[in-house]
Amino acid sequence: MSAEYATFGLAPAMRAGGVLVNGDYQVHRDFVDFIVDGRPLLFQLSDLDAVSPLASDVPPSIFTAQVRSLLLETDAPLPGGRYVIYGCPECEDLACGAVTAVIEKAGDDFIWRDFAWQTDAVADLEFNGYDGIGPFRFRGAEYRAALDSLLASGTAGPRRRVLLIGARVALLAKLAAALRTIGIGADIAHDADGVPADELRGYGAVAFGRGAGEEERASVRRAFDRAGVDVTYVDGLAPIVPLLVAQIEHALDRSPEEQRRLTRLVAADGEAGVEVTSPCRVRLTAYRLDRLLRTHAEEVFDGVLEAGRHRIALDAKAVKGEAFVVARTSGSVLVEAMAH
Fold first, then answer.
1. Is the predicted pLDDT of residue 2 greater than 70, yes or no?
2. Which of 86, 198, 323, 332 has CA 20 to 30 A from 269's CA?
């Protein structure tokens, strides 16, 4: 085992939720990711749709138990001293598959080794081991300080809500229902006047519909400014619920920009320009409104892209007229209006 040290840190991350073209829903999960040598460890594990055990929606007692487990203050949950590093974002069933590793101490240091994909009680390193991942040796003081900071708060961070402002109540109701289905709280209001500052702090984003006037928008911004709440504002591109959900997902992304996998989307002249920082699956979905304001949606690309910039030709019919493109990876969402 190499004597070289790896750096250890933590950073907010998310598993992007959404309303998919086939009508299925993908649950939104906020969690804390492991940052090894300055990069999310998740990015080294192929194109894995998973979350760490340090998720914001688990009860505080369970969250604290997960942190103490990583500090080796409790027995390993799996045979052979193995711990779950990433698991299924939809459930906690090991049968769905999880990335596990042996965590052990060597003096004051912590070592993560023998990473594997595991679907039952015993890991098979020969067939399901991750070659080239680890072992990682972390300095004890750095490792403990990062995890102890989570124990001080007791959670991975507050679960954020979204405030919806607009004139089309029926559309906002459908949007709120979709957001709640994927795990994002949503409230509908005409304004934010008179709302206590403590309540406003519970919002991570404010989404304005097309029908919200400038005076109405300014009033809402003033209310949040007076409360000293830093919130992300979203201007709804079109009355299309899955598109609005994607915009809100992007607005709620708390991960540092330098640690995101999907970093750029340009949509113009029948092409999409996409940039990713590591190999991953990217899905592009086109939404458009026809002359009768009917919504059309089509998945125009679904494939694994290598790190770098890519130009992807789009079906001309799918982006005709007033159209929008959503780019999605397991942890990021970007939205752009098609420029003609």
1. no
2. 332
